[in-house]
UniProtKB/TrEMBL annotation:
GO biological process: carbohydrate metabolic process
Cited Gene3D superfamilies: Glycoside hydrolase/deacetylase
Name this protein carries in UniProt: Polysaccharide deacetylase family sporulation protein PdaB
SUPFAM superfamilies (alphabetical): Glycoside hydrolase/deacetylase
Recorded GO MF terms: hydrolase activity, acting on carbon-nitrogen (but not peptide) bonds
GO cellular component: membrane
CDD domains noted in UniProt: CE4_NodB_like_6s_7s (cd10917)
Domain named NodB homology: residues: 61-238
Annotated PROSITE patterns: NODB, TAT
Organism of origin: Vescimonas fastidiosa
Amino acid sequence: MAKKTVRVFLLSRRVALAVGAVLAAAAIFGAVHIPAAVSAAGTARQLPIYSVERPSEEGEKFCAISFDAAWGNEDTQMLLDILTRYDVKATFFLVGDWVDKYPESVKALGDAGMEVMNHSNHHDHFNRLTADEIVADVTACNDKVKAITGIAPTLIRCPYGEYDDHVISAIRSMGMEPIQWDVDSLDWKDYDAKTIFKRVTENLQPGSIVLFHNAALHTPEALPSILEFMQQNGYTVVPIGQLIYTENYTIDHAGRQWPAQEEKAAS
């Protein structure tokens, strides 16, 4: 009897080990293959526009420069004067709180023909907000800008450059387009003018969107030489609203916007 009991116990133990091995293999399979599925799904995620493919038969090169204004106002008029001197129209993304503090600067930007767009109402982390909260935040900033310039923003740059699918979906549900950048001056780090110039000019390409910040320490010093470089190298600087396509376009995995027929040719 004792031997029979031992045999039954050993048999049961072997079955349990076999089942455990199968379950372990299944777990390993899942761990290996689930991330691949997530990655595949990630390639279809919604992206904002980082840059634009703008083919031209005459070889004309377009780019855009942008300024995020969330704090400080000591250099706004200086930047505006420089842009006007070089006959350049830029895009300014304004936080609603900044609009509240500096309405006269908002009006000056609009009167000078600059493109005045949305950078959220309070510069919150959109990833942490619900879709309804995002819509309410964006609407509040739009209303403030429109009350001063007479024009409601159609573009937005998400605070901190943060976004996910639900953020982009919420923004596009409003008929607005989220805009990122492909050339980052990193001027907010207080790099000197020479470093800012190098960062921008070495990364600039046709269709680029360049990121600067209002109230960055050395941007007014670097901006003239950057604008001269662009003009000397055949670039036409336009507001982002004139750079991007508003219909019949696709956005590739790198966030580059293509006219529909060009994307087909590229693929």
